[in-house]
UniProtKB/TrEMBL annotation:
InterPro entries: HATPase_C_sf (IPR036890), Heat_shock_protein_90_CS (IPR019805), Hsp90_fam (IPR001404), Hsp90_N (IPR020575), Ribosomal_Su5_D2-typ_SF (IPR020568). It comes from Sunxiuqinia dokdonensis. Residues 601-620 are annotated as: Disordered. It comes from the Bacteria. Belongs to the heat shock protein 90 family. NCBIfam families: PRK05218.1. Signal peptide: none annotated. PANTHER family: HEAT SHOCK PROTEIN 90 FAMILY MEMBER (PTHR11528). ATP binds at E31, N35, D76, M81, S96, G97, T166, R328. This is Chaperone protein HtpG. Keywords: ATP-binding, Chaperone, Cytoplasm, Nucleotide-binding, Stress response. GO terms for molecular function: ATP binding; ATP hydrolysis activity; ATP-dependent protein folding chaperone; unfolded protein binding.
Length: 683
């Protein structure tokens, strides 16, 4: 028997492997099985070249569990090792400056494994002792057994092994006894090894017999050695892609379509990406793309490795240029990974553009399911956004689709405002904003549907890129002001508006967290008596605030709505006439007194012009102060009478409630009162 010490210049290696790999300690099985697959493939290569006569026809990797001995054994029919090769590949972990390196990377054990090929030593994360029983394919080679208990000491001795290959026998420690459960091992193998290129066997297949599952004599192969992405696209049919998707996501809905990646320059890359049906929101889509290196699973947490918007896709990416055993932070900074990421973005954009050109009708049918993905890409990746302008579609309320260029031609003549800006009208909810949409269409305008969660930031981006374009929601103003052709003219003076506002303000809801700003416009006799609009800027800011999780000043502001009273409507005129009659002579006296005092105040203010404060007589100052108090008191009396009239006038309340009802804002008790009042007014 030969004994010795593993050639590592630090005794800290094993404690670091055991401690700092513990968070991902199930990867030990991936490492050992992957090594076994590599050994098997190397022997197949040699056999293919005629350099060995060893049969590889039935080569496989077998994982065995012995709960009595508390061992997990991984066996292969690969090239095996001689005693000299064990010395070279297992015993000599001799890298320079090991102590300094271990201090630097002790908190990131993946970096240790990835940089120095220590995959085999991950077995010591879970083992008290590890044995290697191996026999080389070389003529005359004898089987040998290597043994180590997790200290730098090891032993090598002669062994018995009939066939070429290697057994790795791991004696599982007490802290890791969870891996002695069949279901646990099966889950790990399914996660990491289900597409390895060499058959991997674990246990026996079962069948239902006599009311229970019983084992058969047939080996249970856990992997598919030739998954769809390893084949040429010409050899696959639509059903093959669909079948593979079901293997990846057994509970998933059918995808829209796929992209088959097959690149050999400037790097090697294969894979299949699927476009899922996305709902009208950004769903949490983690763990959907699976990253492989030569069919060995690396990770399914690809945020930061592929562009953010591509994490909404499903499927597989496989490249030997992706490091197998490194941390996510290393993957994210790796130059090869960045090149791969950029290339995938281009391929996705090219595929979408090709689908659009080849079958626009089919592309339009899929648009509502695709748009969230495309919009997300345009918002988060400038290069994709540039390419996406070739196939991004607007959809209008008629259900017709337009490219950016096509829609501009459609609306240019009719929807250009006085400042020569092109105005895109849109609705975020066709049902709730139906009246506004119809009013806009009656005026000859076209209206888009922008009803998903990304609409607001996307419109902001479009406006930033195109300074001559404006996006305006149909309920942000009365139809006459949505696309201003000339400067707006006020038909009522400030004093007239000030007198009318309290009448309608008095019957606006007070307890729904909304501020109402009353305004007056001539909307014509056939227009609605009162229209409720939402300021475009403030609403967008609130939308952005909510999208960003409320971390935005505007997102916390109460909603502010404009209550636009149509001064030309007969019912509004009826309210105004009733106001003058109901308030009577006393109200007129207050108004006359108020106007007289304002004139007196204005005269005194004019007399002060050009004088220093000390030059103004004290009596005049006192008079001005008294007039200010009197005017304030009269204003208060006037406002109280107008408010009192508004509250008692059923028609005023009815008109405001009608506007609220049209916007879906009248509910509960207020709706019940509206119905009762309607019955009274009809009588």
């Amino acid at each position: 028997m030969q004994k010795g010490k593993i050639g590592v210049s630090s005794d800290n290696l094993f404690p670091i492997i055991k401690k700092f790999l513990y968070s991902d300690h199930d990867i030990f099985l991936r490492e050992i099985v992957s090594n076994a697959v590599d050994a098997t493939q190397k022997l197949k290569t040699l056999a293919g070249r005629g350099e060995t006569s060893v049969s590889v026809e039935h080569a496989k990797v077998r994982v065995s569990l012995d709960t009595d001995k508390k061992t997990i054994t991984v066996s292969d029919n690969g090239i095996g090792m001689t005693a000299d090769e064990i010395e070279k590949y297992i015993n000599q972990i001799a890298f320079s400056g090991a102590n300094e390196f271990l201090e630097k990377y002790e908190s990131d054990a993946n970096a240790i494994i990835g940089h120095f090929g220590l995959g085999f030593y991950s077995s010591f994360m879970v083992s008290n002792k590890v044995e290697i029983v191996t026999k080389s394919y070389k003529d005359g080679a004898e089987a040998v057994k290597w043994s180590c208990d997790g200290s730098p000491e090891y032993s090598i001795e002669e062994a018995e092994r009939a066939e070429v290959g290697t057994d790795i026998i791991m004696y599982i420690n007490e802290d890791s006894k969870e891996f002695l459960e069949k279901e646990r091992l099966s889950g790990i193998l399914n996660k990491y090894c289900k597409f390895l290129p060499v058959p991997v066997v674990f246990g026996k297949e079962t069948e239902w017999k006599d009311g229970k599952q019983v084992e058969t004599d047939k080996d249970n192969q856990i992997n598919e050695t030739n998954p769809a992405w390893t084949k040429a696209p010409v050899d696959l049919k639509d059903e093959d892609y669909a079948s593979f998707y079901r293997k990846l996501y057994p509970m998933g809905d059918e995808p829209l379509f796929n992209i088959h990646l097959n690149v050999d320059y400037p790097f090697n890359l294969t894979g299949i990406l699927y476009f899922p049906k996305l709902k009208n929101s950004i769903e949490v889509q983690k763990n959907k793309i699976q990253l492989y290196s030569n069919q060995v699973f690396v990770t399914d947490s690809v945020e930061g490795i592929v562009p953010e918007f591509l994490t909404l896709l499903h499927g597989v990416i496989d490249s030997p240029d992706i490091p197998l055993n490194v941390s996510r932070s290393y993957l994210q900074s790796d130059s090869n990974v960045k090149k791969i990421s950029s290339h995938i973005t281009k391929k996705v954009a090219d595929r979408l553009h090709q689908l659009f050109k080849d079958s626009r009708a089919d592309f339009e049918k899929k648009w509502d399911d695709l748009k969230i993905f495309i919009e997300y890409g345009m918002l988060t990746d400038d290069k994709f956004a540039e390419r996406a302008m070739n196939f991004f579609l607007f959809k209008n309320t008629e259900g017709k689709y337009f490219t950016f260029e096509e829609y501009e031609k459609l609306i240019k003549e009719n929807q250009t405002n006085k400042d020569n800006n092109l105005v895109y009208l849109y609705t975020s909810n066709l049902e709730e904003q139906y009246t506004f949409v119809q009013t806009a269409k009656d005026k000859g305008y076209d209206v888009l549907i922008m009803d998903d969660v990304l609409a607001t930031p996307l419109l902001n981006k479009f406006e930033q890129q195109h300074s001559d374009k404006r996006f305006v929601r149909v309920d942000s103003d009365v139809v006459e002001n949505l696309i201003q052709k000339e400067d707006e003219k006020d038909e009522l003076s400030w004093d007239e508006k000030e007198e009318l506002s309290p009448v309608f303000q008095a019957v606006c809801p007070e307890a729904n967290g909304v501020n109402y700003l009353v305004d007056f416009k001539n909307l014509g006799e056939s227009g609605q008596p009162i229209v409720i609009t939402r300021n475009e800027f403030m609403r967008r800011m609130k939308d952005m605030g909510q999208l960003q999780g409320g971390m935005n000043f505007y997102g916390d502001l109460p909603e502010s709505l404009n209550l636009v009273v149509n001064t030309a409507h007969p019912l509004v005129q009826k309210v105004l006439d009733s106001k003058d009659k109901k308030l009577g002579k006393a109200f007129e006296t207050i108004k006359e007194d108020l106007n007289a005092k304002k004139q007196e105040r204005d005269a005194l203010e004019k007399a002060k012009e050009g004088k220093k404060d000390e030059e103004v007589p004290a009596a005049e100052k006192e008079k001005l102060e008294d007039l200010g108090k009197s005017i304030a008191e009269l204003e208060k009396q006037k406002r109280e009478k107008l408010t009192d009239f508004g509250k008692k006038n059923k028609l005023t309340k009815q008109l405001v409630d009608l506007a609220l009802l049209a916007n879906g804002m009248l509910k509960g008790e207020a709706l019940d009162q509206f119905v009762r009042r309607s019955v009274e007014l009809i009588k």
